[in-house]
Amino acid sequence: MTDYEARKTYIARRDESMRLVDQVFDSPFKVADLKVPDEIPLDAKPLFLSLVSDDDRKILQIPPMELLKKLKSGTLKAVPVAGVFCRAAVVAQKLVNCCTEFLPDLALMYAKKADEYMEKNGKPMGPFHGFPLSIKELYALEGRAAHWENPDLINNMQTDNAVLVNGLLELGCVPFCRTTAPQFLMSIESFSPMHGLTTNPHNTSLSSGGSSAGEGAMIAIGASHLGLGSDIGGSIRVPAACCGIYGYRPTNGRVPITGADSLTPGYNAIAGVVGPMASSADLITLFMESIESLELWKRDTFAERSAWVPVNPKEVTVGYLLDDGHVKPHPPVERAIKEFISKMEKAQLPFTVKFKPFTPMQHEEAWKIITGLYFPDGGQFLKDALTNSGEKATDQTKMIALENPNCVEHSVKSLYAAQDVRNKYKTAYQKHWKDQGVDVVIMPTVPSAAIVPNTTKYWGYTCVWNLLDYPATIMPIGKVQESDKKDESYTPRNDLDKAHQDLYSPETYANAPVGLQIVTPRWNDELALKMMEVFSHAM
Amino acid sequence: MTDYEARKTYIARRDESMRLVDQVFDSPFKVADLKVPDEIPLDAKPLFLSLVSDDDRKILQIPPMELLKKLKSGTLKAVPVAGVFCRAAVVAQKLVNCCTEFLPDLALMYAKKADEYMEKNGKPMGPFHGFPLSIKELYALEGRAAHWENPDLINNMQTDNAVLVNGLLELGCVPFCRTTAPQFLMSIESFSPMHGLTTNPHNTSLSSGGSSAGEGAMIAIGASHLGLGSDIGGSIRVPAACCGIYGYRPTNGRVPITGADSLTPGYNAIAGVVGPMASSADLITLFMESIESLELWKRDTFAERSAWVPVNPKEVTVGYLLDDGHVKPHPPVERAIKEFISKMEKAQLPFTVKFKPFTPMQHEEAWKIITGLYFPDGGQFLKDALTNSGEKATDQTKMIALENPNCVEHSVKSLYAAQDVRNKYKTAYQKHWKDQGVDVVIMPTVPSAAIVPNTTKYWGYTCVWNLLDYPATIMPIGKVQESDKKDESYTPRNDLDKAHQDLYSPETYANAPVGLQIVTPRWNDELALKMMEVFSHAM
């Protein structure tokens, strides 16, 4: 990795903000004194817990809804909790390389605000009073750069906070760090030449998934409970699944995107959305209820009017999709979903849930359509950014754009023809879904448990829902087991499938989580989250 | 006008469907026997009423909400009422040239359905039980062509009804005719080479406005109470204003567009929307309440989830804009709005309404942005359609596209740059509006009372709200008076303004209506319609 200007700026900023942690928060545990072993073990979480101080560990190990309760009742003050999470972020960074910047100054400011509010009013300032919030780097923060892991934007200074960030500050959240993503955010892996690889806390030889790579790793290792991600092809869901946490891609327009949408101004072929990642399903639902209560659509002219309408179904038909017919999931993924269904069929759920198979509709075609619409300029914008900055294209950038056969420079005429194909696919899928008589679909998130770095060639399990703009949410349902043997009798369907099957052994993916994807049609977000809540409580 | 194939097909279909009216509905008044004078008088409405039969006239003159009440109570049966409106459409067609096709077969079928439902169930089938509905030609109707006044699509057969049409059929509506529009629907006037000029019933030397030209004329002459239009630059609002009726452009996504969106597949630079036109404000509100109660977003994957949320404000601040600073409205427009404000300030309204001036933000710039985004292929699509069909471009098609300096062929890069300019304008206008502290803006719809055929060079009073996607609704507030003298002392600001001022004399625009435009920010449709309801009841 050569030392080009953007990387130097990046590292300098990050390290400077790291030093600030000890200055801003007074604690006997100084992050400057941290001694991290040269070799990080496969499972990084025990090491993480051993490196933080005893006092900090007590706070970090409080379950999220209980931590929130303690903050809202005043049992815990926001300022010391903010210090704990700032220090934890540094420890996490040293183990899995997940932070682009630490925000001790902001954390102190907003934590003080919360404490002062409670002092004065005797009640919490909002549903997230004093709750620590990690933020994917792309979100605009006033007075700081937002670069989208685009080295050409390293000094892209922001004059306002993103609309969503402001909403969360009003709800009481305390921002404490910004998190990593792959180059241009256009990969479901976690490598960027600026910061290197973000690794998976469950198995540090694996990727944490992407593009919201740092959020996945931060929450999985236990250094954050709630974070902000973004998703145009699986970027919230894949790291959530890879890291064994929760993550939700809302219907486009429900969560305001202004201030988190500036990588490709004017682009609108595929909708990128923003949404939460969390250590519990309940946090995701609370996030959505609270954010929609603010009516942020009144402040963001690109958001749709929406309000959270809780659902209380009597009976739900769940379609299950184990294999999209193009790339077959590895054995632990299929096994975990089958076990999950069997468990839920026996569980006492608050309403009737019927499972039946769901047949996918041309997901390979969806992959072709969406990869033909991600870069309608044929990737020229990426090439220019790399030329300007001197950064090299990663293999994943080549895979999705620069060497992708579907990534061609469109004329306006061919762009609209491609968008018409997209629209017809949407209309056809709507009918296809209805014809199968299901309310919800459950399925893999990726066809593997986490990801071996630099092996991804297909995002079809997630990006089909970006193409259709269907809400989808992720919950952990298990881990790879030694008994998940490779099926040696399986004959791959195509080269892609063969390459994918060849990757598998239970040793390679040891301890890696499997994330279940729960999907509903557009604007049925409430049902998707209700199912996640019910399923996760029954697990 | 040469006799090219599309025009021959068009005329043959229209005349064949006209003959069907006498065959389908049994009445002593045969449309085949109609004797229409060679010279149509300036005011066509008295002639219209004298040409229909006495029995039909009684039905046609029932005020709309009363007609609906009689149909819903069973006092009037749907089948005979359908016959009356089918015959009235033919009379209207002969006077102002407003129909592309008559639908007596469909009218009978759906009217029978309503009557049979009431017979069987003793109650109306829906809020529009048996109510006649006219439909702009572009809406898909199963088994019929939809050509969008594009001669190249004259045989563009449709396999389904538009989603909105199906919704209205479920609500009880009875479709009885399809109505005219200008070439490619891309004009706020009413001329198409296929059918010629649709004239204004209030002054037949004037245009009825466009592009929903036939709907405006049909409703103004009294041959329909409720119709469907579409609007990408003013196409519902301009004919509503020109014809002295009501018309409403909803926020994009509220009223489902599938089946009325096929002229330019895959296009999405500016959102075209569909919406109602009517003879009363109450019909518009009932339309929206009823349509949204059907939750058609569940059937149209391109619609947003929305529900009608009635508003009951205590105080409303109304900004008034008399002149956009680029093209000054003719004297009757300014006078009518000033009189309207003065009247409303004295009226007993159900809540406090405060008026204050509203300053526009660069509406000339909005016109440049939107005309640069209507045809990102530089109009090649239009040229191809004309070459294929042998139809000639109208002057209005030349004005907005083929000879418009802003209409250039974009690359994907320049398209996204132009869309970014659009987005920044949206964001800036949101702030601009807020800074002025108004809830609603009232303003002209066009800078004249109706339109002298083939004179339009600017849609800035309406298209700025398409660019911003703000809901806007139209109500009649007066007519041109002899005393509306030309202001001879006025010095035009620019060539466009000069050409516009030169058109004016009270004689040229005699009897022409002035339509007030009522605008609110995105998703505040309920407030716009509430203001229209309150204002129109106070008039």
Describe it:
2 copies of one chain form a homodimer. Chain A has 539 residues and is of the alpha/beta class. Chain A has 2 domains: 5-29 and 42-261 and 268-298, Amidase signature (AS) domain (Amidase signature (AS) enzymes); 315-538, Alpha-Beta Complex (Amidase signature (AS) enzymes), CATH 3.90.1300. The first copy, chain A, is built from 18 helices and 15 strands. Chain A has an 11-stranded mixed beta sheet with strand order 1-3-2-8-10-9-14-15-13-11-12. Chain A has a two-stranded antiparallel ribbon with strand order 4-5. In chain A, helix 1 packs antiparallel against helix 5 and helix 2 crosses helix 5. The longest helix of chain A has 24 residues, at 412-435. The radius of gyration of chain A is 22 Å and the shape is globular. The mean pLDDT of chain A is 97. Chain A binds chain B through residues 251, 253, 258, 264-268, 297-298, 301-302, 304-306, 376-377, 380-381, 409-413, 415-423, 426-427, 429-430, 468-469, 521-523, and chain B through 251, 253, 258, 264-268, 297-298, 301-302, 304-306, 376-377, 380-381, 409-413, 415-423, 426-427, 429-430, 468-469, 521-523. Chains A, B: InterPro entries: Amidase_dom, AS_sf.
